[in-house]
Amino acid sequence: MDLMTLILFTIFIVGLITLITYHIKRLNLYRAAAKIPGPPTYPLIGNAHYFIGNTADIINKVMELLSAYPSVIRVWLGNQLFIGITDPELVKKVLLSPKTIEKGDVYRFIRPWLGKGLLVAPAATWRAHRKIITPTFNIRILESFVEIFVEQCEILIKEMEVELEGNEFDVFDYVSRCTLDIVCETAMGVSSKVQTRKNSPYLDAVKTITEILYMRMFKVWLHPDIIFYCTSLAAKQKNCLKYLHGNTDNVIREKRAQLNNSPDLKNTKSSEKEKIQRKAFLDHLMELSDEETKFTDKELREEVNSMMTAGNETTAVIDTFAIFILANFPEVQQKCYDELCEIFGDKVNEPTKITRDDVRRMEYLERVIKETMRLFPVGPILVRNVTDDLDIEKCVLPKGSSVVIPVIKLHRREDIWTNSVEFDPDRFLPDEVAKRHPYSYIPFSAGPRNCIGLQYAMMSMKVLLASVLRKYILYKDSKIQIKDMKLKADMLLKPVNPIKVKIMRRKKIN
Q1: Which of 176, 202, 454, 495 has the fewest CB atoms within 10 Å, measured from its CB?
Q2: Where are the domains of the chain?
Q3: Can you say which residues are annotated as belonging to the binding site for heme?
Q4: Dihedral pair phi/psi, residue 415, rounded to 5°
Q5: Which superfamily, per CATH, for 29-505?
């Protein structure tokens, strides 16, 4: 046997031993998976062939598979085992268990963007950071942002005036610019003025990077870094990250300088003093961090970018779906407007500022928003890693697998939600809520790792929708059935076709 043959033979034996050892270590995983129903699998790719196509095809295929296997389903993406569940009690067990507190491995693709921010942080980092960050989301601080919500929504109303009495127009562009202006001011304390500009590099970068990330999550051949970073997608992602990180880093540097040169408030006018004292999340984070737990500039950037992502894109999508609902169902819109008339009286169409107390009284509008999030959950799929075997009664989730909670399917289960694809805000009356399992509705996730900004989001959405309804009547040329809405998932749930509405100026109440 010559030297080359010996080398090749040695490589083959080492490779074979490595492969056998790898599979022996995973025997528990294979045995558990065999007990769970699921579609037929193929060598190497598993069920990855089901997810070939665009992001609309992927969400449709997910819904089809969940309909075929309504309780628990097993799916392999390459060598990764995913177990989907839609039973509220099982969902509760998963979201409350310390064995499933880690976000799924697929979230690692987001870390070049958000690093170890709360959205995707490993459990140990998440626990430490959440403890520090939670005080910045207390109700007093959140309510201090209402004035910012109102100011930016007033600009939105003015910008939309060009569409008066015209054809249907894409409402998301207007809304996303408004929510970006809001989140820039509340999260970073800077005025971006995106609404009054033609172009927004930030929005363009976010749109591009979210499409790339979601595509990579479901395309198993793009999982290995060595392959992904050889593609044109990686180059696009790099450019987006350079802009997004640079933008936040510049703000942090400016904030550091401001902290070192704080203004003397004694001789400052009261209006200017209020603006100086009205602090953004970034200001609070810098002040709350003590010497032992002080955030580095990199950690600050990761947390601020996480807040920016959650505060802008998510609320913009929900607001847009809600505007569609209001335009599509005139009777719902009228009830919302009637509630606003009760709150503001004959000043409902006047430029009267919305106050914190006004926001609290918008109960029917809140139910409309909740029902919108039931039908169109902005985070349609949650994924958690299983770090140790977890018995959830119907099956054992084996260590090394990932558990998938398809929120959109959970929110449309006919056995929980009668006529599940019909819009009915009264599902969220207190008596109705009490009848349902608390984990049958989780638009902001649930358990200890739920979304920290749910109150912030609800307040900002109420102000935006109320501002629009006080000024304009929303309507569509023809009604669309919710079951006919085509959806896609570019990380967030979105409509395939842009949501378009018409607006007409409301007549002032005499």
Answers
A1: 454
A2: 29-505
A3: 451
A4: -75, -10
A5: Cytochrome P450 (1.10.630.10)
